[in-house]
């Protein structure tokens, strides 16, 4: 099987991959936040997660969330607004929008980590 | 212009694995991929197997994978492909029988499953046919032009992963009758389409829209059918 | 022809889209509140301040439950796409359900039982 990958295929596969990754993140996130009952341990965990390494990983999280959310908008438009014929154009418009949101969102993340 | 055709060859009786065979022919302006295959069969290798009938985009026999995308060989001009080597494979997702011919039987089974005929227990008016306005027909016009070539279903990653999935062609056929104002068979068809091997395996990957030689846009019909099922249920 | 491994799927499809819209809005608010309004480092004090109010508890609870169902529903969707062995599918889907419920309980307990410690420097 060597079918050519077009926009819709990339959009779908990335939606799946980011979706699964975000669910795995959600599991870890809920576990971390559950340490809230002990302020000391919560602050210790947060300080540990404040290291530059995790800040960079957070950029990946931000990108995944933006992609999954915006492509979700695209899926919604296809399913409920009959936008099948414009799906590729919508993909690229949202890709541009997503890039802007990423930069706006990444700046404070890196700034507080002392990278910028 | 000399063009190399890299063609999938498979003969189950030979006991050999599938392989690619290369043929070089001088392509003339306007020559289609099907013309090239006919020329190869006539002058280079008479054992090459492929399906064709009308040569003009009506019968749907010559759907195959050309340079990685499902197309009708008779509607694809070699010149438009703009490549020195044209790779030709049988439709993916179906069992190859010999060379470019695949077993389409599972495809037809799925069309039968959605009851592809008018269901209406009320007898038609005695003096005239069942009336439908042009606006009402517009809703299903594209879907009625399907030539059952199998290009869409064969291009669908959901179908590759789940061979029991109805696929775009059968779902478009279901759409064509469910959204036909003269039809009353929704309740007979809803169980077939509202199913784990039906509508909900479509993840709007869009390969079918590009593959369809009649530009039917199966995804749009499938989305309308999904909404119809949800509306009827809730 | 086999049409039968569990009928339906309409609800899962519809839910995924509706919850998706809610999650998109909620997530924007979540990021905004945590990384812009609070000004950077997430500390116990900042989170506690928010989580001590009933309104935020309600919002976070809805967010938690919908996010878990949306994510795990997605997992089940993938299983239905690629796993066709009935028994294996049953095992995997059951596992996802149990994991989802456990995670939901853990998160719910975290949110509901949270009380700002007396004199916690709020």
UniProtKB/TrEMBL annotation, chain A:
Pfam families xref list: Sdh_cyt
GO cellular component term of the entry, any: membrane
UniProt cofactor(s): heme
Places the protein is found: Membrane
Keyword Heme: yes
Gene3D superfamilies per UniProt: Fumarate reductase/succinate dehydrogenase, transmembrane subunit (1.20.1300.10)
GO BP field: tricarboxylic acid cycle
GO MF assignments: electron transfer activity; metal ion binding
Transmembrane feature ranges: 59-77, 89-110
Record key words, sorted: Heme, Iron, Membrane, Metal-binding, Transmembrane, Transmembrane helix
Principal cellular location given in the protein's record: membrane
SUPFAM superfamilies: Fumarate reductase respiratory complex transmembrane subunits (SSF81343)
InterPro entries assigned to the protein according to its UniProt record, in alphabetical order: SdhC_prok (IPR039023), SQR/QFR_C/D (IPR034804), Succ_DH_cytb556 (IPR014314), SuccDH_FuR_B_TM-su (IPR000701)
Stated family: Belongs to the cytochrome b560 family.
Assembly information from the UniProt record: Part of an enzyme complex containing four subunits: a flavoprotein, an iron-sulfur protein, plus two membrane-anchoring proteins, SdhC and SdhD. The complex can form homotrimers.
Name of this chain's protein: Succinate dehydrogenase cytochrome b556 subunit
Organism: candidate division LCP-89 bacterium B3_LCP
From TrEMBL, chain B:
Catalytic activity: a menaquinone + succinate = a menaquinol + fumarate
Cofactor annotation comment: Binds 1 [3Fe-4S] cluster.
InterPro entries xrefs: 2Fe-2S_ferredoxin-like_sf, 2Fe-2S_ferredoxin-type, 2Fe2S_fd_BS, 4Fe4S_Fe-S-bd, 4Fe4S_Fe_S_CS, Beta-grasp_dom_sf, Helical_ferredxn, SDH/FRD_Iron-Sulfur
Keyword Endoplasmic reticulum found: no
Residue span(s) of domain 4Fe-4S ferredoxin-type: 137-158
Keywords linked to the UniProt accession: 2Fe-2S, 3Fe-4S, 4Fe-4S, Iron, Iron-sulfur, Metal-binding, Oxidoreductase, Tricarboxylic acid cycle
Required cofactor names: [3Fe-4S] cluster; [4Fe-4S] cluster; [2Fe-2S] cluster
Assembly, per entry: Part of an enzyme complex containing three subunits: a flavoprotein (frdA), an iron-sulfur protein (frdB), and diheme cytochrome b (frdC).
Name of this chain's protein: Fumarate reductase iron-sulfur subunit
Lineage: Bacteria, Pseudomonadati, Bacteria division LCP-89
């Amino acid at each position: 099987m060597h079918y050519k990958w077009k926009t819709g295929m990339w959009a779908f596969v990335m939606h799946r991959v980011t979706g699964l990754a975000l669910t795995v993140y959600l599991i870890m996130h809920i576990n971390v936040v559950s340490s809230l009952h002990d302020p000391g341990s919560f602050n210790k965990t947060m300080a540990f997660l404040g290291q530059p390494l995790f800040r960079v990983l957070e950029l990946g999280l931000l990108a995944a969330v933006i992609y999954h959310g915006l492509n979700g908008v695209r899926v919604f438009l296809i399913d409920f607004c009959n936008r099948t014929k414009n799906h590729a154009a919508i993909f690229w418009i949202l890709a541009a929008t997503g890039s802007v949101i990423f930069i706006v969102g990444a700046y404070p993340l890196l700034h507080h980590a002392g990278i910028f | 212009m000399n063009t190399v055709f890299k063609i999938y060859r498979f003969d189950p009786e030979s006991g050999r694995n599938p392989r690619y065979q290369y043929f070089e022919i001088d392509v003339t302006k306007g020559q289609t991929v099907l013309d090239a295959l006919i020329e190869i069969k006539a002058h280079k290798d008479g054992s090459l197997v492929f399906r064709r009938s009308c040569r003009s985009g009506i019968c749907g026999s010559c759907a195959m994978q050309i340079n990685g995308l499902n197309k009708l060989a008779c509607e694809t001009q070699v010149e438009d492909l703009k490549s020195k080597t044209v790779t030709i494979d049988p439709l993916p997702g179906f069992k190859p029988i010999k060379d470019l011919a695949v077993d389409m039987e599972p495809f037809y089974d799925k069309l039968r499953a959605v009851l592809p005929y008018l269901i209406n227990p009320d007898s038609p008016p005695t003096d005239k046919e069942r009336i439908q306005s042009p606006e009402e027909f517009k809703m299903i016009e594209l879907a009625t032009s399907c030539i059952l070539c199998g290009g869409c279903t064969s291009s669908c990653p959901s179908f590759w992963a789940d061979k029991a999935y109805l696929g775009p062609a059968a779902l478009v056929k279901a759409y064509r009758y469910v959204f036909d104002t003269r039809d009353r068979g929704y309740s007979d068809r809803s169980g077939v389409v509202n199913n784990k091997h039906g509508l909900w395996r479509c993840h709007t990957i869009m390969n079918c829209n590009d593959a369809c030689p009649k530009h039917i846009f199966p995804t749009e019909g499938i989305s309308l059918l999904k909404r119809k099922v949800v509306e009827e249920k809730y | 022809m086999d049409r039968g491994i569990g009928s339906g799927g309409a609800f899962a499809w519809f839910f995924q889209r509706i919850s998706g819209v809610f999650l998109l809005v909620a997530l924007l608010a979540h990021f905004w509140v945590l990384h812009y309004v609070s000004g950077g480092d997430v500390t116990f004090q900042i989170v506690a301040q928010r989580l001590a109010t009933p309104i935020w508890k309600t919002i976070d609870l809805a967010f938690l439950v919908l996010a878990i169902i949306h994510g795990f529903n997605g997992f089940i969707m993938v299983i239905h796409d690629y796993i066709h062995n009935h028994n294996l599918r049953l095992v995997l889907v059951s596992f996802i359900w149990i994991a989802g419920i456990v995670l939901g309980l853990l998160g719910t307990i975290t949110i509901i039982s949270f009380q700002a410690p007396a004199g916690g420097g709020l």
